[in-house]
Every structure is written in C-alpha cells, then in structure tokens.
Amino acid sequence: MAALASLATVLGAGASIYGTVRQAQSQQATAKAQAQLTQQQQAARQQELAAQQAEQARERQQALARTLAATRARLAASGLQPDEGSAAAVTGGLRQDAAAAQAADDAAYQARLAQGRASLLQPDGTLTALLRSGRTFGFAARSLLD
C-alpha cells in the first residue's frame, strides 16, 4: 500500500509539473504575442510622430520663407539693401529664431518617441513558472522520502 501511495505521489507531482510547464509555455506565447503587438503599435506611433514632425518642419520653412520675403520687400521699399548692414542682421535673426524653434521641436519629438518605448525589463513569467514547478517537484520528493 505504501508503494501505491508513493506511486500516486510521483504521478501527482509529474502531472503538476506538466501543468506548470504547459502554463509557462502558454504565458510565454501570450507574452510573445503581446510584445509583437506592442512593437507594431510603437512602429505605427513612430511613423505618425515622424509625419507630424516633417509637416511641422515644412510649415516652419514655408513661414520663414514668407516672413523673409516680406521683410526683404519692406526693406527694399524703404530704400535699404536687404542683404547688407542692419537689414542682413534682421533676416539673420529671423533665420536663427526659426532654427532655434526647429531645434526645440526636434527635442520634443525625440522625447515623445522615447516616452512610448517599452521597457526591456517587462516580465514574461517564464522564470516564475519554472521556479514553481521546481518547488512542486521538491514537495513531491520530500513526501516520498518521508
């Protein structure tokens, strides 16, 4: 009878380990699918942000070109040479302001990209399931020795 109880304990432990391993495999497959979905969502978000950034840069360049053309026209209408002296300083200042605004937008774009990235430390549960199965096996071995 004791041998039958030992055999039942071993079979129970084996079934428990098998169930734990299957659960770990299922969790791993789910984690893999979630990681792929997260990567796809992240890629779509990056493409969207890149398109927005390109559109904003294009709009800023067009606005700068219009502002420079209007400023040069006013300066020329006033009798000043638009490429010399203080007129050149004004147009240069406009270009510097536009470059600074573009740099600020670029920094904000990089921060928005970094904000949505998934952590490399996200748990997938495989180690936990493996440790649980080892503990189950340990309990079975202990009950056999008792």
From TrEMBL:
Record keywords, A-Z: Coiled coil
Keyword Coiled coil: yes
Lineage: superkingdom: Bacteria
Coiled coil spans: 21-74
Identification of the protein by name: Uncharacterized protein
Species: Siccirubricoccus soli
